[in-house]
Amino acid sequence: MKKVLVVCGNGLGSSMIVEMNVKAALKDMGKDAEVSHTDLTTAKTEQADLFLGSEDIVESLEDGNKNVVKLKNLMDKNELREALENNL
Amino acid sequence: MVDLIMKDILGTPAILVGLFALIGLLVQRKNSGDVVSGTLKTVMGFVILNAGASVLVQSLGQFSSMFDEAFAVDGVIPNNEAIVALAQESFGTETAMIMLFGMIVNILLARFSPFKYIFLTGHHTMFMACLIAVILTTGGFSGASIIILGSIILGALMVLSPALLQPFTRKVTGSDDFAVGHFGSIGYFVSACVGKSVGKGSKSTEEIKVPKSLGFLRDTSVSVSLTMVILFFVVAGFAGPSFVETELSGGQNFLVFAFMQGLTFAAGVYIILAGVRMLLGEIVPAFKGIADKVVPNAKPALDAPAIFPFAGNAVIIGFLCSFVAGLVSMFFLPLLGLSVIVPGLVPHFFTGAAAGVFGNATGGRRGAVFGSMANGVMISFLPALLLPVLGSLGFQGTTFGDADFGVVGIVLGNLIRLIGSNTIVGIAILGLLALLFLLGWKTKANENKNDVDAA
């Protein structure tokens, strides 16, 4: 089971919405993964196969071994789907 | 038995919220594992929220003692998470009930009015429910009347707030895909209007090269830690080492004590946020799932950061200008006999940034600067004016931060104070909401007419 973690500054609002979008996209693609959302501080110590978030936030997650995808527009479902297709 | 159900089960907010989650999960026909884990996590989220509140209160108490010793006035730090966590002890049941029925009212209004917005910023729904519960209780409402009136007010705000901003939101995002659902919206609306009036011919903020070095402030726990440590240092310095070391820290060096207390406050906020995240993890998706079934072509109203990517520089500029305006306001507040509102990085970051994005959309650079400054002044003065109507909750050293909480609280609180009878208050409030709907309706109709004319 792959794990996707959506990250935003507060870990409350936008990451939760994106999490719902990810779940909907995965269902569409017929894939299964564990999806959750959290704040930046917590994300740094979490393990996941894919970290998603807006560009300016997830930049600081890149440490060379994390698979981080920077989204240009958080709410763009097509961009999100592309990120999922390329990384899962 | 009745007592057990009514008082012990429904009177315990954690269990009540857990029941909402349970119903939501059952309605969605989730499998049994998801139902059990979702329900337990929701209840646990509430327990974590309370645990965070007790950590935070300790440090807030120390801050108040020092501030009082240093300046002989009350200093108040606006922080939604803190005030809501503190309020759960006395107002938890009312908050939970108003939140649930407010969501239902939101879905009904979206279904039957032209405002098709589904307000998905769950923590703000909860904070607003809490504010309404506090004000109505303080005003003498109780029982069924508080829940009915409260949820109508909340549900109406959940569609009115995104509707107010939507013309400007369209300008920012260039589409009509989503709305902004955030209770700082009155501040953004003012910012957009200011931008409109000052920004003739001003270039967009996005043509400036801004260093990315301020990005780390978007991490809430970092920005809270930083603000609180600086604030504690300053206040401890003014209170003097002898006072701190004899009265508060039990001999520990005053700067070390200040440092640790600042981080204790931040840790409290972090714990509360973790609790809120767990608490909403099941409720918001259930709400969205139900809304999608009931309301055709519903528009999601999302948290303010959803618009940040559309103007990255305006975010930084907006935050800085809002914060500066907050610092300046701090010196004017006591002159007007109001409590000192210590500007917090978090409210100024999130609402200042959003105000900057809206100001930029209507008035370029000048709009972003002056619009977010207007927002900064608002989130300094509104919390100060709100304190008197919060009753006993107003003496805790913290208050609600964002603009809409201030406006709604002040209007409601003073209505209740001026009008003696609760029935008339109820009618007045409903009348006011109906008026707002009609206004919005008219504006919308005009817009549509213009669109048709333009086409």
UniProtKB/TrEMBL annotation, chain A:
Q: Which Gene3D superfamilies match?
A: 3.40.50.2300
Q: Which Pfam families match?
A: PTS_IIB
**Which keywords, in A-to-Z order, does the entry hold?**
Sugar transport, Transferase, Transport
- Superkingdom of this protein's organism: Bacteria
Q: Which InterPro entries match?
A: PTS_EIIB-like_sf (IPR036095), PTS_EIIB_2 (IPR013011), PTS_EIIB_2/3 (IPR003501)
**Enzyme Commission identifier(s):** 2.7.1.-
GO molecular function list: transferase activity
Q: Where is the PTS EIIB type-2 domain?
A: 2-88
Record's protein name: PTS sugar transporter subunit IIB
Per the UniProt record, the source organism is Halobacillus naozhouensis
Q: What is the lineage of its organism?
A: Bacteria, Bacillati, Bacillota, Bacilli, Bacillales
UniProtKB/TrEMBL annotation, chain B:
Q: How does it sit in the membrane?
A: Multi-pass membrane protein
Q: Which domain of life is it from?
A: Bacteria
Question: Which of UniProt's keywords are assigned here?
Answer: Cell membrane, Membrane, Phosphotransferase system, Sugar transport, Transmembrane, Transmembrane helix, Transport
What transmembrane ranges does the database entry give?
A: 6-27, 39-57, 96-114, 126-159, 220-244, 256-280, 301-325, 331-358, 370-395, 415-439
Q: Which InterPro entries match?
A: Ascorbate-PTS_EIIC, PTS_sugar-sp_permease
The subcellular location is:
Cell membrane
The record's function comment reads: The phosphoenolpyruvate-dependent sugar phosphotransferase system (sugar PTS), a major carbohydrate active transport system, catalyzes the phosphorylation of incoming sugar substrates concomitantly with their translocation across the cell membrane. The enzyme II UlaABC PTS system is involved in ascorbate transport.
UniProt record similarity statement: Belongs to the UlaA family.
| Quaternary structure, from the entry | Homodimer.
Full protein name: Ascorbate-specific PTS system EIIC component
Question: What species does this protein belong to?
Answer: Halobacillus amylolyticus
